[in-house]
UniProtKB/TrEMBL annotation, chain A:
A molecular function (GO) term: sarcosine oxidase activity
UniProt xrefs under Gene3D superfamilies: Folate-binding superfamily
Organism: Candidatus Lumbricidiphila eiseniae
Short name of any one Pfam family annotated for the protein: SoxD
Protein name: Sarcosine oxidase subunit delta
BP GO annotations: tetrahydrofolate metabolic process
NCBIfam families noted in UniProt: soxD
Length: 115, 993
């Protein structure tokens, strides 16, 4: 049972949180303009890396806020957590996969429409 | 019996307090402070049980939880199977018997209580031996909040077995002084408490045995065991070491035990393990046992040492005592039926044997060296390496160093004290990511770190605690560990896993894991079968899988695998250590979460009314919902029939309070719902209601329900009962991560409001009578609208929605007024025959109308179109969640499964839910696999239809109406006709009354 550092509440027991899949996969600007393959990449394709991975988590039994986390998939350990729209201090190209589905690439680490 | 093997003085037992206990039906006496094992041995009883596979007699083979043999079943005072004689404290009323590997669960209920406690500390010290006591003391003196946890009844660990001078006092005094100072410094000191698991971020789980040592003096409903959940910023593992046996022919007879354990029995319990003792060792440590026993008056017949080079002090010690010493020799066999009577030894140079000599002996002490108890360290992710000198796995030093560095930089380590103060625990940015190597804030000290000498153990404890204090940012005065004698300069021990007296495949009495009756021959067969990994060999032979989890057999098994297969021990490694360290009762883990506290139970505001009116309940998620209300001994079928007839022909009432409700507010609430739902919500007028479906981005239905626009900027969203929490998380995710610019605020209102659908042709009369201010006519109050009114002064909201196809009014009030509203509706409706109905009747009514239940008639692969609800998918909106997926080729495929109705040819036959649907006419001679065309999702007996019926998801279903299909039921085919999923009142004429 890890402690997860909610960016709003601080460290809390893992059981208070829910996992929400890979982070930094923004909803496409114009889904209608994407072909089936491009859309399928947005809906279904995830990078599933061995090592550091950016993920969405929500503090379900706490403040109910969604946030992003970097986690090492080899050890499960959280490297850091950061608020939606913020950038992690540890960066790596692999955290922000640019797939062909992504007509608009995020200009920064945050989610698309944050600013 | 008379405790003829008890020494006249010495040991940590109370000779003034004799305790009688029963073993195998015989009344025996021991003393307070004994374990069951020491009490048995004090009466000369070695033979405790027989082995699981071969029925061989087995005795006490060790003094602690590492004993692979002495399994017993306790019959009184608290029945419990699978206990170890060496860990059961002698207590009033104890009765036990040996068990061959398997016990029997007691049949009577357990009246004892179990609970859980939480503890947050700066430093957790596991093990109260010399290293642990010193670490706790030094940390407490520096001002740290310390917990010290130890599995034994008494602190002291190794010192209890090995009296010596420490810190200028004898060890017993030093233990007492140290414990007193720890208490004075408010250290949380738990004895009889086993840390059985070490997890992430400094979490330790421990079980405290609070009352078993009081036996029948403890009240039956005592708080018997407690699980401690301990969060520590730093943890020092000082769990000691386990002695390792040597495997030889017939090494399992009662009377053969570990040498250090014999010393424990002597010095801690005042028990001589036999009259005539022989020692078989590969290292120095067993000499101390031999000498202690000799000095206590036991005849030590011989010391057999596999080494040729032995330290002069040991040679001298043996000579002074007149103990013959056989160097370069090994034990090659034993005899004796229920107790050892003699042993055979031979000279052995590693390849060839000398001639055999036999000695009489009733006890054989064995020492193959010591294994650091690295279990907890390894559980927490600590890496181990093989130490050739010790013949054991020890913590990987280089990794330790890296870890300490990593935790200092604050990357993998969380200071809980700051969490307590509700401050941000770590700087949010750091220079660079240090790869995590597995051990957070964890140090290992004493013999658990392979430091077997007392002085080096104390030094390692001192070093570990100083590092911990640096991490804790605690100032500490220069301190030193207590003074002890110089460690003796040990001659290296020999590593001897087994005495290789024959082809390994033939060594069928060379027991490696005595509890599993697994031998060297079993390992040889595993290797011959091609297995090389120790993990595979473990599973093939079952070595290390018993209650003791291979505490004595694990490393030996690895060594034997290495030797037979020619692999290097360092590359072979050992099996992974997993929690629990020692067995933990499920009752303790469950704690108070038993019975009705197992999972929270949610009830509606009128739950007591349901109980008073005889409702049978059904669990829906955590909710208790009335399933039906039997009258006059009705069974469910009869009750449901009566309830559905009332709703269709007169009036029924349902407690629909468990439906999820989310209050959606804000200037952008309408825009938000437009993006979430497949249909348009922004055009909804205040006072109106719309049914909506939510899909995932993949276009699959995830929830449905009605939406009320209550104000320009405010909506009340109803979700399914089971989906309430999930939908709220889903809405928040989109709001917070994708559309933070939308000014929308969500709150759960599920428990604020109760909702009672009043259903049936006479519902208008009931509503009209109870709410005279309200015009309940269809013109003034049309379908899919809501109106506010009052009941006395209670604000009431009534909605014209229908989940049955009947004229219906869903009446809502704040939960406080729920019971009052319900009883008034029942009273007013009485003359109209108002009938409360449960979820079962609700299901029949909704299924007759083809209304799907998300999660029952859908499974995450079903679109709104599949449910025959293309009308709920907006063509006008540019986008909403799921829209793009509806255009995918896979979503437009004609062979998708679609919702249909089924009418069995035999209207009395109910097709079980989940039944597969096939087109073949006969199951005889059918070619397998048979093509499955779909499956039944809902199935009921309908009075309105005069038949059973079902809903099903069927390949291309919407184009197959009128066709026949067969359901496979218990190996037979049940024919049915495919119909539209709306089976009753397809024109919808009933909903307006
Ligand atoms: Zn939070």
């Amino acid at each position: 049972m890890q402690l997860i550092d909610c960016p709003w509440c601080g460290c809390r027991e893992e059981i208070e949180f829910s996992y929400g899949g890979q982070a930094h996969i923004p909803y496409p600007d114009n889904p209608a303009e994407l072909n089936d393959t491009q859309w399928a990449h947005y809906v279904f394709f995830r990078s599933n890396p061995k090592g550091v991975c950016a993920e969405r988590w929500v503090h379900s039994a706490g403040c109910r806020r969604w946030f992003n986390a970097l986690r090492d998939t080899c050890t499960y350990h959280f490297i850091e957590t950061y608020r939606i729209g913020e950038s992690p201090s540890f960066t790596s190209a692999s955290l922000f996969p640019v797939t062909e589905s992504q007509v608009s690439v995020p200009t920064e680490a945050g989610d698309r429409k944050t600013q | 019996m008379t405790q003829q093997y008890r020494t006249p003085t010495g040991g940590h037992i109370t000779r003034d307090t004799a305790l009688s206990f029963e073993f195998e039906g015989t009344l025996i006496e021991g003393y307070a402070g004994d374990t069951l094992a020491s009490a048995l041995l004090s009466n000369g009883v070695h033979h405790v049980t027989t082995s699981i596979k071969f029925g061989r007699p087995r005795g006490i083979a060790a003094a602690g939880s590492e004993d692979p043999n002495g399994l017993i079943q306790i019959t009184t005072p608290i029945p419990e199977p699978m206990q170890l004689a060496t860990t059961v404290e002698l207590a009033p009323g104890l009765s036990a018997h040996g068990i061959p590997g398997q016990g029997t669960l007691p049949t009577e209920p357990d009246p004892a209580r179990y609970d859980t406690a939480h503890l947050h500390v700066d430093l957790l010290v596991i093990g109260a031996g010399p290293a642990g006591l010193n670490a706790a003391l030094e940390a407490a003196r520096a001002g740290a909040r310390v917990a010290l946890v130890d599995e034994q009844p008494l602190p002291g660990g190794y010192l209890l077995s090995t009296p010596c001078m420490i810190g200028g006092a004898n060890s017993t005094e030093w233990i007492a002084q140290t414990a007193a100072e720890l208490a004075a410094r408010a250290v949380i000191h738990l004895q009889r408490t086993t840390v059985f698991g070490l997890y992430d971020d400094g979490l330790a789980l421990a079980v405290e045995r609070r009352t078993d040592h009081r036996g029948s003096d403890a009240a039956p409903d005592s708080l018997r065991q407690r699980i401690w959940r301990i969060r520590a910023i730093r943890t020092i593992v000082a769990t000691g070491a386990h002695e390792r046996p040597i495997v030889f022919a017939d090494n399992d007879r009662p009377g053969i035990l570990l040498a250090g354990s014999a010393r424990t029995f002597l010095n801690r319990f005042g028990v001589r393990v036999g009259d005539s003792v022989t020692v078989f060792t590969t290292n120095d440590s067993a000499y101390s046992s031999a000498f202690d026993l000799h000095d206590a008056g036991v005849h030590v017949g011989a010391i057999i040492d596999s080494r040729l080079v032995i330290g002069t002090e040991w040679i001298e010690g043996a000579k002074i005592r007149g103990i013959p010493l056989h160097s370069g020799s090994v034990v090659t066999g034993t005899s004796g039926d229920n107790r050892l009577t003699s042993i055979t030894l031979r000279r052995f140079n590693g390849t060839s044997f000398g001639t055999a000599e036999s000695y009489e002996a009733d006890t054989l002490l064995v020492s193959g060296g010591w294994n650091p108890a690295v279990h907890l360290y390894s559980q927490a992710g600590g890496m181990l390496r093989y130490d050739e000198r010790l013949g054991a796995f020890v913590p990987h030093r280089e990794v330790d160093a890296a870890d300490v560095a990593a935790s200092r930089s604050g990357t993998t380590f969380v200071p809980h004290r700051e969490v307590d103060a509700l401050r941000r625990p770590l700087p949010r940015s750091h220079e660079k990511f240090v790869p995590h190597t597995g051990v957070d804030g964890l140090a290992i000290a004493g013999s658990a770190a392979g430091k077997f000498g007392l002085r080096e153990a104390l030094d390692s404890s001192h070093k570990a605690v100083r590092e911990a204090l640096v991490d804790l940012r605690l100032a500490h005065s220069p301190s030193r560990p207590p003074e002890v004698e110089e460690d003796r300069d040990h001659t290296p021990g020999a590593v001897l896993w087994f005495v290789p007296s024959d082809d390994p495949h033939k060594l069928t009495t060379h027991f490696v894991d005595m509890q599993r009756d697994a031998t060297v021959a079993d390992i040889a067969h595993a290797i011959s079968a091609g297995l090389r990994s120790v993990e595979h060999v473990k599973r093939y032979t079952t070595i290390g899988t018993a209650h003791d989890q291979g505490k004595t057999s694990g490393t030996v098994a690895s060594g034997i695998v290495a030797e037979i297969s020619g692999e290097k021990m360092s590359s072979l490694g050992t099996t992974r250590f997993r929690p629990p360290y020692t067995p933990v009762a499920f009752a303790a883990l469950a704690g108070r979460a038993r019975g009705h506290l197992f999972d929270p139970v949610r009830v509606t505001a009128i739950h007591d009314w349901h109980i008073a009116h005889g409702a049978e309940f059904e669990d829906v998620g955590q909710w208790k919902r009335p399933r039906y209300y039997p009258r006059n001994g009705e069974d469910m079928h009869a009750a449901v029939k009566r309830e559905t007839i009332a709703a269709r022909n007169a009036v029924g009432i349902l407690d629909g309070s468990t439906l999820g409700k989310i209050d959606v507010q804000g200037p952008d609430a309408a825009e938000f719902l437009d993006r979430i739902y497949t249909n348009i919500m922004s055009t909804l007028k205040i006072g109106s209601i719309r049914y909506g479906v939510m899909c995932g981005v993949d276009g699959m239905v995830i929830d449905d329900g009605t939406v009320l626009r209550t104000e320009e900027d405010r909506f009340l969203v109803y979700t399914t009962t089971g989906g309430a929490a999930r939908v709220l998380d889903w809405l928040e995710e989109w709001l917070q991560t994708e559309w933070p610019e939308l000014r929308v605020y969500l709150s759960s209102a599920t428990e604020h409001l109760v909702t009672f659908p009043v259903v049936g042709p006479r519902s208008r009369a009931v509503i009209g009578e109870l709410f005279p201010d309200l015009d309940a006519s269809n013109e003034a109050f049309p379908f899919m609208t809501w109106r506010d009114t009052k009941l006395a002064n209670i604000p009431v909201r009534i909605a014209r929605v229908s989940f049955s196809g009947e004229l219906a009014y869903e009446v809502s009030v704040l939960s406080w007024y729920g019971l009052e509203l319900w009883t008034r509706l029942i009273e007013t409706g009485a003359k109209h025959g108002i009938t409360p109905y449960g979820t079962e009747a609700m299901h029949v009514l909704r299924a007759e109308k083809g209304y799907p239940i998300v999660g029952q008639d859908t499974d995450g692969t079903v679109t709104p179109q599949d449910l025959g609800m293309s009308w709920v998918v907006s063509k006008k909106k540019l986008d909403f969640i799921g829209k793009r997926s509806f255009d995918r080729a896979a979503n437009r495929d004609d062979t998708r499964r679609q919702l249909v109705g089924l009418l069995p040819d035999d209207p009395t036959k109910l097709i079980p839910e989940g039944s597969q649907l096939v087109t073949i006419e006969s199951l005889d001679h059918a070619t397998v696999p048979i093509t499955m065309d779909g499956f039944v999702t809902s199935s009921y007996d309908s009075h309105a239809l005069g038949s059973t019926f079902a809903l099903a998801l069927l390949v291309g279903g919407s184009t197959r109406l009128g066709e026949k299909i067969n359901a496979v039921v218990n190996g037979e085919l049940l024919p049915a006709t495919i119909t539209n999923h709306v089976l009753f009142d397809q024109e919808g004429v009933r909903r307006d009354g």
